[in-house]
Amino acid sequence: MSDITDFTLQQSDFRWIGHDLSRPECVLAERDGTLWVSDDRASLTRIGSDGGQSHLGAQQALPNGIAVARDGSFVIANIGDGRLWRLGRDGTESVIVDQIEGRTLGSLNFAYVDAHDRLWITVSTLTEPRIKAVETPTPDGFLALVDGNQARIVLDGLCFTNEIRIDAAGQWMYIVETAHARILRTRLDADGLPGTPEVFGPARLAPDAKPDGCAFDVAGNLWVTDVGGHRIWVITPEGKAHVVFEDPAGTFLTRPSSIAFAGPDLRTAVIGSLALKQLAVFDAPVAGAPMSHWR
Q: What is the pLDDT of residue 2?
């Protein structure tokens, strides 16, 4: 496709994967067609390429963001109990970290393993209940690096920090700042640490927007899910934002929270949700950028 901003979806373009899921907020895809989905009845739900489903782990609370470590284990940010967990493929679970520099992990939102095997986490807020920090932007969110069972804050003062991604060149980190309805980006220095953030794309995606998840495609476009406006956005490398799909009433694509690219060609886009019991799927016009665990 010559211009990604020409791409739009209709309801008829979607199909569905999975059944009876419970808060499938985050989705990870593996090379063999397996999907892993956060599930508040266990830790994760596995959806095989044959459609079969099974649970793994027993965290409950609210498993949220998921990453895969170099050894194949899962790293799970549990926004319900404020702990970062490791989950082995055999179901063994242990807490990696539950505090940082004297702070609790509050609303621990997301875990991300980059191309250099560094483990990043985002904490949305320390405010209770956390919805207050969405309704009234509160700069108590932060980004941290985890090394072993220690963590250190590397970027502070964010307003409901959500998902993050690093571009293919490894030069910029992109941060979803939900409370301000925008995407930030920060250049990584020679040590791979973030500097001062700047706004990427519109200063506010939409008056009712609450961006949540994001993922790059191989052309450098950033795909963004919007739980507030029930939308899917794409933002070009130049910062032009385009609505790919929206469901104003929220009766079809309800509260989309994450996006993952799957399939052998990475052109199957899979949408997680805070409310749906299935995963919405559509054919992407551009292949997704492979995550670190596809190595």
A: 56
